[in-house]
Amino acid sequence: MPKQYYPPTTLTYSPDIKGWPSFYSYLADYMVGMNGFFYTWAGGNLYRHNTNVLRNNYYGVQYNSTITSVFNEAAMTIKLFKTMSYESDDKWECTSLFTDLSAGSMLSTYFVQKEGEWFTFLRENDGSVNFKARSSAGIGTILSATGPIGAIVVSFNLDDLGSILSVGDIAYQVLPIAPTPSNPYPPAGAPTLIGPIDNIVRKKTTNIATGVVTLPSITINSAGVVPLVGNFCLGLKNSVAESHGARGYYLHFTLENTNTDTVELFSVGSSVMKSFP
Predict the structure, then answer these.
(1) Same structural domain for residues 142 and 231?
(2) Which of 60, 135, 187, 269 falls 20 to 30 Å from 89 in CA-CA distance?
């Protein structure tokens, strides 16, 4: 679970619910309720609240509206959170989204209005890397790497690369770790970024007339890292496009709105199913 650091805030107590329901961004030196109005002092100045046109404007500083909550029904069950939806008269942005196993965020542009609700499928953060996900696929051991930086052709001694790999996937290489007497089967090293795949030759072919054999290969727009012969190569698909939801015991989220007018948020929901390994 990511560590959460909260800035100093002002808490409000409600005698009706006997709890602390709200947090405010302003920090006052003194507060008092008088004649049906709420007054605060800050920096030696007196302010009367709930009278200015701009919402969330305290002491001349404009703040955004945020709400933080958790989906945790069936708390002892690992769940797959597929979607998020909310009912409101204005668009909100999900600025924080994480479970005990993953993290992401939903831009306001991800939400579309359907039957009176704002709706989106949950997506991972753009650029996030997870080699344990099914969006990661092994290619093979690098046989050769030729060509200039930006168009390196990497060949493999295979008959077929299969159909999972696609143009646009990101290629990585893994440097094998030499075995030792104390560790004859060492784990693989950490994958190193090579670059996006621009072209794929999937199948091994033989020219009948000349007998020339063309091996399967990929052309990589390398960012400066040269693929090394003998390293294992793998491909990773776009994390946003391959998102399938957020998995975990709970889903912690924060919604944020930048409107300075009155905005109402009626409900927030998620489509949830039990996660099956």
Answers:
(1) yes
(2) 60
Write out the DSSP string of 80-126: EE-EEEEEESS--EEEEEE-SS-EEEE-GGG-EEETTEEEEE--PPT
Q: Kindly report, residue by residue over 225-245, the tens digit of the pLDDT.
A: 789 999 999 998 877 777 777
What does the alpha-carbon distance between residue 224 and residue 222 come to, in Å, rounded to a whole number? 5
Residues 74 and 58 in one domain: no
Cα 235 to Cα 138: distance, rounded to the nearest angstrom: 6
Distances from the Cα of 205 to the Cαs of 1, 139, 201, 210, in angstroms?
Answer: 50, 18, 10, 12
User: Residue 28, Cα to own-chain centre: how many angstroms?
Assistant: 36
The rounded mean pLDDT for the chain is: 85
Q: Which residues pair with 234 in a beta bridge?
A: 138, 172
Euclidean distance between CA atoms 102 and 13, whole angstroms: 34
Those residues whose C-beta lies under 8 Å from the C-beta of residue 116, and which sit 6 or more positions away, are: 87
Does the pTM of the predicted model rise above 0.70? no
Long-range (24+ apart) CB contacts under 8 A made by 100-103 are: 100/1, 100/248, 100/249, 100/250, 101/246, 101/247, 101/248, 102/246, 102/247, 102/248, 103/2, 103/128
Question: What tokens does 193 get?
Answer: 């970024």
Which strand (E) or helix (H) includes residue 248? strand 246-248
Query: Do residues 221 and 243 both lie within one domain?
Result: no
